[in-house]
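pls design
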């Protein structure tokens, strides 16, 4: 993941009152579908921009946060994410252009109509979700959604998001760390031990328990109809 920010056009003309103040005050931003689509068209002209973070409003240090509402399709749904500081959320503290693109594609193409012979809603899983724009888009579309990450800052943030979100579809957050499977490829895969995201599965699980988030049960991992991920490599 890349941590370098860019300044998309929708930041232009922001009122001063939209900026988060010092401390833990929640500022807010709204991104229309037209603004999001225009920004992504610019990214297609410069593909390297897809590796960068969208918003620079949530600062890298400290505890400032920003609520960003994205219109993922013309007329809605409107999906709100809670962006965090770099100190709390590492590189996933803000959503990336790839997450924005995937969310708009899901809203345009995902068929959530009842399936013959299958009871209940589709079950969706987002891997390495960060602020979970894609997963929250799934939920807004009516998918029972599980948001997963391994960093305690994200898990704590997402727990609060899930508690505040309502709707007919289920929404929950679970801890999931790819390093649980690392033993299978020992000697084949190299793990960057210097990254906060790679502190080890045991340490990750302990951190998740510390913020009140359960580990995703192994028995559930093959139970999802749709798995999404963006900017995870």
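designed seq:
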């Amino acid at each position: 993941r890349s941590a370098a920010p860019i300044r998309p056009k929708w930041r232009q003309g922001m009122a001063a009152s939209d900026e988060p103040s010092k401390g833990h005050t929640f500022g807010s931003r709204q991104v229309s579908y037209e603004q999001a689509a225009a920004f992504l068209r610019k990214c297609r002209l410069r593909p390297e921009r897809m590796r960068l973070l969208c918003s620079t409003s949530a600062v890298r240090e400290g505890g400032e946060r920003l609520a960003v509402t994205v219109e993922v399709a013309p007329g809605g749904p409107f999906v709100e994410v809670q962006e965090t500081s770099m100190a709390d959320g590492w590189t996933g503290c803000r959503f990336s252009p790839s997450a924005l693109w995937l969310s708009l594609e899901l809203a345009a193409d995902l068929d959530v109509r009842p399936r013959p012979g299958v009871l209940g809603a589709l079950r969706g899983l987002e891997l390495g979700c960060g602020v979970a724009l894609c997963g929250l888009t799934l939920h807004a579309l009516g998918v029972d959604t599980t948001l997963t990450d391994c960093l305690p800052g994200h898990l704590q943030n997402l727990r609060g998001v899930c508690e505040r979100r309502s709707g007919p579809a289920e929404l929950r957050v679970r801890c999931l760390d790819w390093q649980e499977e690392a033993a299978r490829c020992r000697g084949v895969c190299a793990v960057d031990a210097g990254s906060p995201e790679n502190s080890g599965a045991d340490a990750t699980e302990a951190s998740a328990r510390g913020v009140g988030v359960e580990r995703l049960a192994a028995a559930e991992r093959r139970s999802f109809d749709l798995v999404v991920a963006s900017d995870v490599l």
